[in-house]
Amino acid sequence: MISGGVHPLSFKRLSRNFPIQEFLQPERVVLPLSQHTGAAATPVVKKGDEVVQGQLIGQANGFVSSCLHASISGRVSSVDYCYLPSGRRSLAITIENDGSNRRIETISRDWRSLASEQLVEGVRQAGIVGMGGAAFPTHVKLSLPPGRRAELVILNGCECEPFLTCDERVLREETAGVVEGLQIICRAVGTGKATVALEGDKDGLDEIVRPYLKKLEPELKVELKILPERYPQGSEKQLIEAVTGRQVPSGKLPIDVGCLVFNVQTALAIKQAVTEGWPLVQRVLTLGGLVEKPSNLRVAIGTPVEAILNFCQVKLDGRKRLVMGGPMMGQALPETSLPVLKGTSGLLVLGPREGFSEEAPCIRCGRCLQACPMRLAPAEIGRQARLGNWEGCRQLYVNDCIECGCCAYVCPSRLPLVAWFKWAKAELREKKTA
Amino acid sequence: MEKLPLLSPAPHLHSSETTGQVMWTVVLALLPAAAGSIFFFGLRALKIMAVTVVTCLVTEAASQAVFHRPVRVKDGSAVVTGLLLSFVLPPRLPLWMAALGGFSAIFLVKELFGGLGYNIFNPALAARAILLASFPVEMTRFYPPFQTGVDAVSGATPLTAVKEHLAGPLPSLKEMFLGVRAGCLGETSVLLLLLGAALLLARRIITWHIPLAYLATVAVLSAIFRQNVAFQLLAGGLILGAFFMATDYVTSPLTSRGKLIFGIGCGIITVLIRMQGGYPEGVCYAILFMNMLVPMIDRLTYPVRYGAVLPEKKSSGQA
Fold it and tell me: What domains, with CATH codes, occur in chain A?
């Protein structure tokens, strides 16, 4: 059980019952070299080069970085800066589709014959990052720091953000692949214990998954846990608390309490990387909200959002908001040419809404304290942030905030609490480096 | 490329509850007791309520305009203050004094301190304290219910009667529960107040922590002082104070533990004033006193944050 949290309407039944559709050949893809946590990748192609699907186009720059591959075949039309949904800028490689659908040779190998290091290297070369949204390079997670032992691997199928059902669909349709990915992860980190965590609302999914898990015994002991619905249970720290009762100490990593958490689609990507040598060039995302046919789509990484909207015949009227990710933590997009990234789990069309109110007073109702899953005091941090007292924010542990949005969700004064906390964190980071 | 509306930060979903809704729900919860007060004390009660509410609204709008703050009287917080203030005034207070009270509550106690969310003291209670200090005679002249004429005879509140060892029968516990007794406008009918309190609890506008801690403390201490516990709970402004005054968001602690401490503190001071102090009733000053301690209580009761445990302690707990 996590503490705090909220329970918004899930809207999941709008899209959960339709099979995954494919939209893999957009006219063009835009592939930012920095769509993961860590250093940007270095481009290894230049304007005019011909590339095929799966070909390496960006080399990881250091350990905490990630490789990037062409998600369609075609000609590189530019290597130039583009904006990311976060508002940052990144160098990006644009590829115009030549329609030939050529791709790199895949291989077929048995992961059981490979050593841990080889597995991790396979994951690294495939450019896999956490696909739940944080986009942390997966090979880094799989490389345990010296002295640390992974005790439990948690497969995160919570998908606690409203509207999103892509992980659920992937787990339903590609159960074998996901479970094999989980096996590979456990082998790579050397543990025989895993948990598959689902939230209570995924009707019947547990019955589909359970037989696959049974088959893994006794080599790998996997428990299937159905957790009560609660946002933000899919957050790494909260999920660890819900599954094991342990808390990741402030400023530490999950591995410090012996846990590693992987998203469903990350596991599938790991399986494809290790057994087929196939890099991360596609993902499944949920198109939802105010659209006629909410659906789950398998798209090429780098597909511009507008191409997806056209493909699904979604019309925006200039007032509706477009959000990349889930409604609680996703980013509102300034325009529709931005590309889908490795960590993009949803594309939501939401109605216009009364904005946040910077001027409204906090009435100290305390709802945010009840809702905060990190058990911070958002009202007080907000008060300090409003005064520009960043040091005061730090003393109230603003850096422990996971930006889940629960406080702002429940705030009756509609204060943009999370936006303030992000600001405070950025100011504190700057001060630290200065 | 399509143009999209102005960016808004995450989260993009919201619970439907707004500050205005919260305040108007409190107003709704006060209406049964307001109606009861008109029933017991006649149209005079309605006049006082109207005067305080209107003065509060006008003062709020005027001071927000003067201080160049956004005028947000629509959020209903001034109506809550006005109603609550009228509830702690005696039925035949001259109307201009009631108006002065409304002005004091909003201007002196609330807006001068920064407006909604920044005031230290409960505006209605602080205004009552100001009026009591300014007009000690008028503020302590009470009348039994159902006396509407000019020749009405004043009568003591039950607590005063006990304190002063006055002769004459006290109202029965049943009468006190229903509200058939002398007292301030809105404090007399425990039944109607509890009706409103039930609404606030059911709609989760308030939590049980403060009222329960407050009432339980009064009950226990009254027993220790060898008083009639039921009488002490029903008398004075305790029910009104415990459910509607001490639970004021702005002037009470944020955390559940803090709310318990706050309620217990209110209870202790209330009983001490009733038993040992110079006044028959202590609810008003008890809450005002505890209001001052709120920042300190908050600071001492912040929840233990996730991951605050020492790593060594944590890892030893691994099985």
Answer: 1-24+110-353 (3.40.50.11540), 367-433 (no CATH)
